[in-house]
Design a protein that fits this description.
The chain has twelve helices and no strands. It is mostly helical. Helix 2 crosses helix 6.
Length: 178
């Protein structure tokens, strides 16, 4: 799917690439002008982002806002912006401590997202993990094959928990071990 998206990118991504090519050297002046105009309208960046990001029913259905929101969601820039929000770059020649940006907020958000994904996967396999009391005998427990459980949990598709398994592997191994 990723390859298809690159050979036939969304029209919004193509438009953004074209705009970036013609942005020119005066980027800060353009951003400052937009922010000044927003201020004249009684908006600031947090309010603007909230409204564009499904924060108002009229903004949700407005064609231009919907197009630009889609452009952001499919953009190559979005992952980079979020990464910089998480860990802002240090200013050139700065010896000051790096700005925290939205590190705390993004880490809490990411933790909640991971929790939701894992909960959903585990909910899908709860029938595998439940067994009637009569199956808890020594004989039954001795016939349990851990390798079978590993295969089932690590397999994508019906009955698997590939993201949970990936998380367990990441937690169990250092970068060097991977």
């Amino acid at each position: 799917a990723e390859q298809d998206s690159e050979s036939n990118p969304p029209i919004q991504r193509t438009h953004t690439r074209r705009l970036r090519e013609h942005l020119g050297p005066d980027k800060a002046a353009k951003v400052a002008a937009v922010l000044a105009y927003m201020n004249d309208l009684g908006l600031n960046l947090p309010l603007f982002l909230d409204l564009v990001s499904w924060g108002d029913p009229d903004c949700v259905t407005h064609p231009k806002i919907r197009y630009e929101r889609s452009a952001l969601m499919v953009s190559e820039e979005l992952p980079l912006v979020i990464a910089r929000w998480h860990q802002p770059p240090r200013s050139t020649n700065s010896t000051n401590v790096r700005a925290r940006g939205a590190t705390t907020v993004l880490e809490r958000f990411a933790f909640n997202c991971v929790g939701d994904v894992i909960d959903d996967e585990l909910e899908g396999i709860k029938h595998v993990l439940q067994c009637p009391p009569e199956d808890l005998s020594m004989e039954e427990l001795c016939t349990l094959f851990v390798e079978d459980l590993i295969l089932k949990f690590s397999s994508p598709g019906f009955g698997g928990t590939p993201r949970f398994w990936s998380l367990l592997l990441r937690l169990a191994q250092t970068d060097k071990q991977q």
